[in-house]
Amino acid sequence: MTQPILKQARRIVVKVGSSLVTNQGNGLDHEALGCWAEQIFRIGQMGKEIVLVSSGAVAEGMQRLGWKSRPAALYELQAAAAVGQMGLAQAYATCFSAYGLQTAQILLTHDDLSNRKRYLNARSTILALLNLGIIPIINENDTVVFDEIRFGDNDNLAALVANLIEAEVLVILTDQAGLYTSDPRKNSAATLIPETHVSDPAIEAMAGGAGSEIGRGGMQSKVMAAKRAARSGAHTLIASGKAQDVLVRLARGEAIGTCLLADMPVRVARKLWLADHLQVRGSVVLDAGAVRALLAEGKSLLPIGVAEVRGHFERGEAVSCLDTSGREIARGLVNYSARETRKIMQLPTSRIETVLGYVDEYELIHRNNLVVL
Ligand SMILES: Nc1ncnc2c1ncn2[C@@H]1O[C@H](COP(=O)(O)OP(=O)(O)O)[C@@H](O)[C@H]1O
Ligand SMILES: N[C@@H](CCC(=O)OP(=O)(O)O)C(=O)O
């Protein structure tokens, strides 16, 4: 019996692949986009927060430019993506507005998520949009990336977005019913895997490359994306985007497609990820109240609890939190630079704007970005 992971999840990332958003490569399949908008609206009504990662810019751009075959030159592909992204954003805005939902366009590169400052900015923007009830629609920023800084495929991008916002589930919709024991286009005896763990060594061998002209990564990139998503504790569901009401049925707990389970829950995985990735740049000494708030109450660190700032750090970098005896009690990603922190320390959050002229965040270190040692 497979687990109803989407039913239990509150925050999810849904990825729809090239093979689904385009009409056999001829522009966008507006009817399909409308179906996802309707389903996302319905699962939103069930209390879930949804971020959509959608491909389709190149296909729509080619249609708008009247190009019959995919160009080989990178600059032409980028030009097509730039033209097509307009249509993709427009099409989603129209489809979602039928349900009273607003959409926002977010274009990301790999660099944006490996740079701590931009990572925090991307995270804050997406979380702010979710709080406002807006559907963020994400694609790769094809204009500024090539070769080594490309995500390469949107499966990978969607997994990084799941890490970024601590989604509990990544849903990858594609043109197959899920992960099969081998590529079903090539082997008619292949059977569907209903559920396994991402750490199952057999799954990589089962997954092959893209089976169509339009898709790029194939099942291989979906399995890799599931492994990446699992690093922050997100489970992955791979299912057919063509199955009737697929998202709604998954959200009701129906077992459809393939479920690739992460080995640890979001909260634990996030802490491990943070502990692994933190290279400490400076430190803040906390007063007794802040030490208690972090250790005993699991709260975020507010500027008011900081007694002293040591060293130099920028927004998004890692700092040590010390108690008054100099013992390190926690580490986390800081929302303000050392210079800014010196100005706002010992002040209530209501004073941040008056002192700095802006508010990046009310917490100095949010508890989700903090590891207590
Ligand atoms: N083990 C497998 N199970 C299912 N599909 C597979 C497998 N191995 C390779 N594939 C191929 O992966 C394709 C889906 O990937 P892709 O074309 O990149 O889709 P998308 O555009 O949705 O990302 C399928 O059409 C299928 O031919
Ligand atoms: N960013 C590009 C392509 C991304 C892409 O093809 O990814 P995938 O859907 O994983 O095959 C686009 O919007 O056309």
UniProtKB/TrEMBL annotation:
GO terms for cellular component: cytosol. It catalyses: L-glutamate + ATP = L-glutamyl 5-phosphate + ADP. It comes from the Bacteria. Coiled coil: none annotated. The keyword Nuclease does not apply. It is an enzyme of class 2 (transferase). One of its GO terms (biological process) is L-proline biosynthetic process. It is found in: Cytoplasm. Keywords: Amino-acid biosynthesis, ATP-binding, Cytoplasm, Kinase, Nucleotide-binding, Proline biosynthesis, Transferase. Transmembrane segments: none annotated. Its EC number is 2.7.2.11. InterPro entries: AceGlu_kinase-like_sf, Asp/Glu/Uridylate_kinase, G5K_ProB, Glu/AcGlu_kinase, Glu_5kinase, Glu_5kinase/COase_Synthase, Glutamate_5-kinase_CS, PUA. SMART domains: PUA. SUPFAM superfamilies: Carbamate kinase-like (SSF53633), PUA domain-like (SSF88697). Pathway: Amino-acid biosynthesis; L-proline biosynthesis; L-glutamate 5-semialdehyde from L-glutamate: step 1/2. GO terms for molecular function: ATP binding; glutamate 5-kinase activity; RNA binding. Residues 282-365 form the PUA domain. Substrate binds at residues 55, 142, 154. Belongs to the glutamate 5-kinase family. PANTHER family: GLUTAMATE 5-KINASE, ISOPENTENYL PHOSPHATE KINASE. Catalyzes the transfer of a phosphate group to glutamate to form L-glutamate 5-phosphate. HAMAP family: ProB. This is Glutamate 5-kinase. The gene is proB.
